[in-house]
Amino acid sequence: MATLYPRRMSAIYLLRHGRTEWSENGRHTGRTDIPLTGDGERLATAAAATLRALRGTDAAPALVLSSPRQRAWRTAKLAGLAVTGTTEDVAEWDYGSYEGLTTPQIRENVPGWTVWTHPCPGGETAAQVTERAGRVLATARAALDRGDVVIVGHGHFSRALTAGWIGLDATKGVHFGLEPAGVTVLGDERGEPQIEYLNVPPAEPLGTT
Fold this sequence. Notes:
By secondary structure, the chain is α/β, with parallel strands linked by helices. It has a single domain (12-200), classed as Rossmann fold. A 6-stranded mixed β-sheet has the order 3-2-4-1-5-6, sandwiched between helices. It has helices at 21-25, 38-55, 70-78, 103-107, 126-143, 155-165; strands spanning 12-16, 63-66, 85-86, 149-153, 183-189, 192-200. A hairpin with a 2-residue loop joins strand 5 and strand 6 (192-200). The mean pLDDT is 94.
């Protein structure tokens, strides 16, 4: 099939879920299970073409892992993916008592707060997220000899996965952007981990934005 992207060896594809009401409002959404908006469903559907172009094939991936939250597995379904399994290991960063709050709201009590630099009371530490990302990447690596791996999840945790792929801890995820329904490709060059594509937007037909 024709593609804008060159063929490659098997790779890991990170697909962030489409938009939700909370993501549009900047509210931290970890454990809360909320649906995609209509626009989020449209973006998730458009992500199918992005994945097809990046992978250069219509063949099913060897492994598709999804967060158990409906915004993730619904995105996977709309993007034409058959989920192999859902796991809490792919869930979003646990924000603890900051769940549902925006950064400005949190900063009213904790000036300068970010998830990358400050703790989340009652939630996960950066070290715990780093460890969890390592488990997910180990599972993905083990499947690469059978074909591509797609991980359908969330913004902060997918950025932590991106950092972990090149040997960095979760806090370094701040350096990688990932918009709703965006795709990041993790591969390698002669055995060295490489970020092949970062935050590729959904390939929407002209006139739909």
